[in-house]
Amino acid sequence: MDTTERFGRLGRWIGEFDRIDRKISATMARFGMPIVRIGIGVVFVWFGALKVIGISPAAELVEETVYFFPPEVFVPVLGVWEMLIGLCLVYRPLIRVGIFLLFLQMPGTFLPVVLLPDVVFTEFPYGLTVEGQYIVKNLVIIGAALVVGGTVREEDRTDDDAE
User: With the C-alpha atoms ordered 124, 56, 146, 101, is the resulting torsion angle positive or negative?
Assistant: First the structure.
């Protein structure tokens, strides 16, 4: 006995909801990964470009954290690095390179937590400043990068199948 027979009109509504839910889920599965990958890429290109052109709101935090390098050199170099990460993520054949560069860069983004806790926390260990929130959001980027990296082989198979 199917849902419609068992529950009548309610069963038809449940069946229709399930059909719509499956379509929505399939659409999300189809477009979700490219949107995540390109979205991370755009963020990296954008934030990196701000550092290169000298208008990044994070530049001062970088300067205070990496005080042993001249900021007029280090901040733009970091910006170029971030732009390279972003471009690699946007251009699918270079995803692996982008993720590698991202994982080399990410530990440095957490240095202020150790070196400048007064800038990161209003109340240690849970009250975050805006700078602290900016740093903690990198956990989401790391997680998304892991998910994107976990699909690289699938995308390779998709490319091979298309040829």
Answer: negative
Greatest Cα pair distance in the chain: 74
In the numeric block, which tokens belong to residue 127?
Answer: 């009250």
Dist. CA 114–CA 80, nearest whole Å: 25
For every residue of 64-128, which 3-state class applies, written as one string?
HHCCCCCHHHHHHHHHHHHHHHHHHHHCHHHHHHHHHHHHHHHHHHCHHHHHCHHHHEEECCCEE
The secondary structure of residue 128, as a DSSP letter, is: E
Instruction: Burial-class residue 16 by CB neighbours within 10 Å (0-12, 13-18, 19+).
Output: exposed
Residue 12: its pLDDT value, please? 87
Residue ranges of the chain with per-residue pLDDT less than 70: 1-6, 155-163
* Average pLDDT of every residue of the chain: 92
Cα 122–chain centre separation:
26
